[in-house]
Every structure is written in structure tokens, then in C-alpha cells.
Write a structure and sequence with these properties.
236 residues, mainly alpha, Serine Threonine Protein Phosphatase 5, Tetratricopeptide repeat, 13 helices, 79% helix
Length: 236
């Protein structure tokens, strides 16, 4: 890379990392005019296009990046997400699967950054299944996310909610408690654990969870509302 292109790249990368995409974009495009074989530049332009909602253009950038470097896992994941946005779900699954295979050529070789990216995608898909009431599919996705990155309190909590929806209260409680252990300040874990206890008829334990949740986060409206509801019921 000659000195001029190196300066353009350094400035474009800095602006990109600061989230100043509209300023980074023309600099990155200028680099491609001179040399279109920079996979990293293509990936960054793909991200910018994706952020703008220009998914077809984003896919083209990611595809070009992968033609230059088929092992570019971040570009693969970005492409899988973009295909999903375009409704090309089969392509998304294929690319996503290939990204996982490339990232883990042997057992235990998965990079933590890649594991986090893959876990995020499983979590996102799990949420879609949950929204449509497809609990078994959602549980499968959440478990995949946790196998990749076990210390995610939001995933444990969503898995707990889904298990509870299937009537598996004891297993749900395990995951809510796991979320609390990972991040004691994650209020939703306390709230959802309280709801589960209440559904099991353990009102005292439910109240205890919601009160502790409010001690940690006085602005947690859900916990306050549930406590007020129980107290109003008790007065009746």
C-alpha cells in the first residue's frame, strides 16, 4: 500500500471505528478505485451500506471481500445477516454454517470474538422463534448461543422465559439464577425469577426477588408494579 493509500486507509478506519460512517465511506471508496483488492475495505463498506439499509449493495461488498479472502469470518457473518435481511434465508444459513466451520477448524479452536458474533446471531434467531411462539426452536437457538458463549445473562434469561412458557419451571429457575450470578445487576433475571416463583404459588419468594431487584435498581418499574399488584391483592 503506497503512502497516500495508507493515509486514506488510516483515516477511513479511524472514522469508521468512531461510527462516522458518512465521512469514512468516500475515503474507503477512494481506496477501492486505486486497488479494489482490499477485503477489509470491502467489508467496512458493506457494513456502512447495511447501516444505510442498502442490503443488496452490502451483500455485494461482502461477497467481493469473501472472494478475496474466503476465510474472512467477520465478512461471512455480515453476509449471513444481510442475506437474512433480504429474505434469502437458505443462503444465510449456508454462509452462517460455513463461517462456523472456518472459524473452528478443530475442537476448541473457536476465537472468542467469532464465538460472540455467532452467539449473538443464534440469540437473535431465538428471539424471532420466541415471538412466534415456536418454543422448541427458540430453546434450541438459545442453547446454541450458550454453548458458544456461556456467560450471557440475557440469553439465560430468555431461555428461562421460553422454558417457563413450556411449563418447565424448575429448569427455567436454574437459568434465571445463572443470569443473576453472571450479572447481579441484570434486573430482568430477578424480575423473571419472581414471576416464575409467583406462577408456582411461591408468593413469598416472588416478593423477595422483586424487592431485591428494586434494591439494586430502584427504577425497575416491572418489579415495582408486581409488588404493588400483590399488595393490592392482599388488601382485598
Amino acid at each position: 500500500m503506497d503512502e497516500h493509500l495508507e493515509e486514506l486507509y488510516s483515516e477511513g478506519k479511524r472514522l469508521f471505528e468512531e461510527g462516522r460512517y458518512s465521512e469514512a465511506e468516500p475515503l474507503l471508496k477512494e481506496i477501492l478505485k486505486t486497488n479494489p483488492r482490499y477485503a477489509d475495505v470491502l467489508n467496512k463498506l458493506g457494513v456502512i451500506s447495511h447501516m444505510k439499509g442498502e442490503y443488496r449493495e452490502a451483500a455485494d461488498y461482502f461477497e467481493r471481500a469473501l472472494r478475496l479472502n474466503p476465510r474472512y469470518t467477520e465478512a461471512s457473518l455480515n453476509l449471513a445477516i444481510t442475506y437474512n435481511e433480504l429474505g434469502e434465508f437458505e443462503k444465510s444459513r449456508e454462509v452462517f454454517s460455513l463461517a462456523a466451520q472456518v472459524a473452528r477448524p478443530s475442537p476448541g479452536a473457536l476465537d472468542p470474538f467469532v464465538a460472540g458474533k455467532l452467539a449473538d446471531e443464534h440469540y437473535r434467531i431465538g428471539n424471532i422463534y420466541l415471538d412466534f411462539g415456536m418454543y422448541d426452536e427458540a430453546i434450541d437457538e438459545y442453547r446454541k448461543a450458550l454453548r458458544l458463549t456461556p456467560n450471557l445473562p440475557d440469553v439465560h434469561t430468555k431461555l428461562g422465559i421460553t422454558l417457563r412458557n413450556k411449563g418447565l419451571h424448575e429448569e427455567a429457575i436454574v437459568h434465571f439464577n445463572s443470569a443473576k450470578e453472571i450479572n447481579p445487576n441484570y434486573g430482568q433475571a430477578w424480575v423473571q425469577l419472581g414471576i416464575t416463583y409467583y406462577m408456582k404459588g411461591l408468593t413469598g419468594l416472588a416478593i423477595e426477588e422483586w424487592e431485591k431487584a428494586l434494591e439494586r435498581n430502584p427504577n425497575l418499574k416491572e418489579a415495582r408494579n408486581y409488588l404493588q399488584l400483590i399488595k393490592s391483592e392482599e388488601r382485598k
